[in-house]
Amino acid sequence: MDWRRLDLNLLKVLGCMLEERSVARTAERLFITPSAVSHALARLRRAFGDPLFVRSGALMVPTPRAAALERSLAVFTASLDLQLDPSRASDAAFDPARSTRNIRIVAPGALDLSLVPRIVAAMREAAPGMTLAVEPFERRSYENDLASGRVDFVLSVGGHTLASDNVGSAVVREDELVVLVGPKSALYDGPDAIETAAYLSQPQVYPLPWPVMQNYLDVVLARSGKRRNFSLLLSSYAGLGEVLTGTDLIASLPDHTAAVLVRSHPTLRLLRMTPVRRSDLTLLWSQAGQQEPALRWMKSVIATAASAE
């Protein structure tokens, strides 16, 4: 479909429907009749070849196609607002407490236990109307995702996601890779630091934020012909504490995440690795998106939460 042939008035209806999920409330906001909204939706459905909304009780729920359009439409309307009313670009004009902005970030799974809860706590306190969607990090470039507004921020471990002139970046903290062991591990009663040979001799559990051989530690080990002994692969970090507590398996993870697990599972023991392995946690954002006060505010929230850990 060539968007130039689309009546742009229909995008106002679509954008409002995505926010309101109601034909009646959309009509009220746009000062038109519900019949006019229904007619516009029929035209949009023909144009996109998709139902766009399906009724669920009193709400009109967007289809996956409509949900995918929501991010691009939000970026377009925010940019247009700023062009028509430059005062909207002022931080003084932005009130987090009144914002209903949906923020989407990409983050490694380990941050679900440590940094993400801090970010959410700050948002709930200062901007309860804002929402946050977190999607898992993949070892690839996110330049197009940031430029299109599909995602607002990316948290990258180890600096593997390169920034271009269109993408801003800042190191928000440094993580140390540590080892967690439970009472049944052969390492539990040993020294506080573990050397590589002893580390590699133990059966390990690996949460899967990305494929094993894209993990920076395994890439480094492979260069010297070494590999870890994985006995369990998990889909996330959610069950890691229970697994380590009840088995002889060990796990390596960032120290901030390890500290959270030790607090919730006090019998776990944290060991440092020798040699010490550290990596940067980098925040990435779209330079163009920083025209929007809500995104400037959110960048500050993320950076502050990371530095406070």
Automatic annotation (TrEMBL):
PROSITE patterns: HTH_LYSR. Keywords: DNA-binding, Nodulation, Transcription, Transcription regulation. It holds the Pfam family LysR_substrate. Residues 6-63 form the HTH lysR-type domain. SUPFAM superfamilies: Periplasmic binding protein-like II, Winged helix' DNA-binding domain. InterPro entries: LysR-type_TF (IPR050389), LysR_HTH_N (IPR000847), LysR_subst-bd (IPR005119), WH-like_DNA-bd_sf (IPR036388), WH_DNA-bd_sf (IPR036390), YidZ_PBP2 (IPR037402). One of its GO terms (molecular function) is DNA binding. It comes from the Bacteria. Belongs to the LysR transcriptional regulatory family. This is DNA-binding transcriptional LysR family regulator. The lineage of its organism: Bacteria, Pseudomonadati, Pseudomonadota, Alphaproteobacteria, Hyphomicrobiales.
